[in-house]
Amino acid sequence: RTVDSGSGQRIQGRGVSGENEGTFQDDGGTLDVNNLTGNLGDAIATNGGTLDVDGNYTNDRDHNITNGSTFILRGNWNNDGIRNFDVTDGSRLALVDRWTNTGTINVINSTFDWYGIGTGDTVGTGVNDGVLNVTDSTVNLNSTVSLDDLGTFNRSGNSTVNINGTYENAGTTLDLDAATTWNLTGGRINGGVIAGDATLQVTDDSTLDGVTLNADAFMDSDQSNSQYLTVLNGLTLNGTLTMQRVHSHDRENVLRFVGTQALQGDGEIVFVDPGQHYSSERYNTIQSTGAGTLMI
């Protein structure tokens, strides 16, 4: 049998117990499946619809997400072997909570969202033991994730990686390849080295904690937003950090050191200013906040 949510319809299924021996199909509407156990079975999202599955289950099929559709897998799940996802045509795949991928995820002209849950000992995160191939697409890292969690992560074309959560980089190197746009968008990078040929774009209120920055970084206060970068446990800067202001008197870029900090390395910080000022002007600023000393 088929549970089909057509255009404009919303169907919610709660307490779905046992295996899906039929088909969950979303065709332009919204289909929510909660508390699923057993096998996921056939699940289809197409024509701009949203299929949202939650529970404790096994993914036992390959899946194609097309035509601007959204496929969300929540809960505690894994694959029963090598199971593949193909995400194309402006669609979105979101993997949420505790999950393990052992197949291949192909994302082409689409979006892949990586989520986890909780904090501390209760954190749940995804693990990619398979392959993630991204072409001309956007990857949002929305939770705590590490290099080991990412596994084999191939990027090509004009792709973007947004670090919205926490990237655990201690003891490793985050390599910013020139073919990819790398954004630290209100996220945090803990430890390790950031290197590579690309420039790290810093937006919103982001944090570097005990990082060696061998790559370049860029902060740009636009017409509507100031940008803030907080440093904890020191910063070794061997690249160039550019702080650029637009012509707007109430926007600023702030490099903020909290407590006793050391700014080291042979890099440089470059202020770029529009050259026109007002009495209430904000500026590019290096701040030392809290008790302690900034050592340069």
Descriptors:
eleven-stranded parallel β-sheet, 16-stranded parallel β-sheet, mainly beta
Can you tell me about this structure?
The protein is an all-beta fold. Helices cover 1% and strands 58% of the residues. It has one helix at residues 147-150; strands at residues 2-5, 10-13, 23-27, 30-39, 42-46, 50-59, 63-65, 70-73, 76-79, 85-87, 92-95, 98-101, 104-108, 111-114, 126-128, 131-135, 138-141, 145-146, 152-156, 159-163, 166-168, 173-176, 180-185, 188-190, 193-196, 199-203, 205-213, 216-221, 227-237, 240-245, 253-258, 261-264, 268-272, 284-289, 294-295. The strands form 4 sheets. The chain has a 16-stranded parallel beta sheet that branches. The radius of gyration is 22 Å and the shape is elongated. The protein starts with a strand and ends with a strand.
Describe the secondary-structure layout.
Blueprint: E1 2-5, E2 10-13, E3 23-27, E4 30-39, E5 42-46, E6 50-59, E7 63-65, E8 70-73, E9 76-79, E10 85-87, E11 92-95, E12 98-101, E13 104-108, E14 111-114, E15 126-128, E16 131-135, E17 138-141, E18 145-146, H1 147-150, E19 152-156, E20 159-163, E21 166-168, E22 173-176, E23 180-185, E24 188-190, E25 193-196, E26 199-203, E27 205-213, E28 216-221, E29 227-237, E30 240-245, E31 253-258, E32 261-264, E33 268-272, E34 284-289, E35 294-295
Parallel strand pairs: 1-3, 2-4, 3-5, 4-6, 6-8, 6-9, 7-10, 8-11, 9-12, 10-13, 11-14, 12-15, 13-16, 14-17, 16-19, 17-20, 18-21, 20-23, 21-24, 22-25, 23-26, 24-27, 25-27, 26-28, 27-29, 28-30, 29-31, 29-32, 30-33, 31-34, 32-35
